Amino acid sequence: MLLYVTLGSNDISRARGFYDAVLPSLGYRRQRESDEEIGYAADGDTRCRFWVVVPYDQRRATIGNGSMVALQAETRADVDAFHAAALAHGGTDEGKPGLRSFHANFYAAYVRDPDGNKLSAVCERPE
């Protein structure tokens, strides 16, 4: 359904450091970058699916109340690694890794990046 997702940043260099450290735990790596944006994709993907950008209108990036990007994790260990990497690189905890009530195998962690954008990593496989 989704082609790609963008999140705004007020400090693209700081965002690069955060996402370069966090997204590899889910199989995504920085594939594109400029002074205004950085793009991440899985190895072998034909396009970047996750972008962090300086807002096009040059106004300050802000977060949305109720907005969140959930990223698929292959294993629960990947969710744990995502959460640990986020906290180690300037992110803040919004929900430690664990099972959630959405269904029996919904294992997730929630963080905010240094700009305040909310992210989740989710594994729905039984383990």
TrEMBL record:
CDD domains named in the record: VOC_like
Parts of the chain that traverse the membrane: none
Coiled coil: none
Pfam family for this entry, one: Glyoxalase
Domain of life: Bacteria
Residues annotated as domain VOC: 1-124
PANTHER family: BLL2941 PROTEIN, GLYOXALASE FAMILY PROTEIN (AFU_ORTHOLOGUE AFUA_5G14830)
Name the UniProt record assigns to this protein: VOC family protein
